[in-house]
């Protein structure tokens, strides 16, 4: 399904990796069925910051999110897969990854997420970011790309089209990034491997 050594090697040397089709299409299709906002109130507007600073600011971040639930079979299978990745990467890279959290995200047409870092200020415990894309028939001119920036300055390292079944993994601290707006709804699962809180 996925060679953890290859992933570890590329993370160690380049800091990120794009996997074209790491899951079986049937599993991706099941995840797509869970990333639907039709049951009222399962998805909530994403917010920025933590606790007292929680804010909702459409200008910066326009997605609706729903955290995965381990009691759901489809979500559970995804979390099991991420657990394999977590323990494999710990063995290969001694990252000390302690746990994983992830949510479905739906960006409506026109919504994006401005340049940001996944490492929340005051909480430097997110080490690796993952994004798994759930967009069938995505065309190049539909937009919605993930743009990875260089750690300093405006240099663009890569631009990733969010096509169905693709996964991106990157070092959270090394890559500020942005989600460009798309002309139709854009679905994904965004997640973070964490170490024990160090801040
Ligand atoms: C995020 C994020 C990227 C993407 O949720 O923090 O940056 O491509 N997502 O959806
Ligand atoms: Mn992010």
CATH class type: Mainly Beta
In the CATH scheme, what's the topology name?
Answer: Jelly Rolls
Q: What small ligands are held by the chains? A: N-oxalylglycine, manganese (II) ion
Kindly report how far apart the N and C termini lie. Answer: 36 Å
The geometry reads as globular
Q: Specify the number of helices.
A: 3
Mean pLDDT: 92
Fourth-level CATH superfamily = q2cbj1_9rhob like domain
Spatial strand sequence of the major β-sheet: 1-9-6-11-4-3-2
The CATH architecture would be Sandwich
> What is the number of strand segments?
11
Number of domains as seen in the coordinates: 1
Category from helices, strands and their pairing: alpha+beta
Give Rg in angstroms. Answer: 16 Å
- Tell me roughly what share of residues is in helical segments: 10-25%
Taken in chain order, the helices and strands follow as HEHEEHEEEEEEEE
Main sheet properties:
7 strands, antiparallel
Strand percentage: 25-35%
Low-confidence stretches: none
Summarize this, please?
Helices cover 21% and strands 29% of the residues. The chain has helices at residues 4-13, 25-34, 73-93; strands at 16-19, 44-45, 63-67, 99-107, 113-116, 126-133, 146-149, 156-160, 167-171, 177-179, 186-194. The strands form 2 sheets. It has a 7-stranded antiparallel β-sheet with strand order 1-9-6-11-4-3-2, covered by helices on one side. Strands 5-10-7-8 form a 4-stranded antiparallel β-sheet, with no helix packed on it.
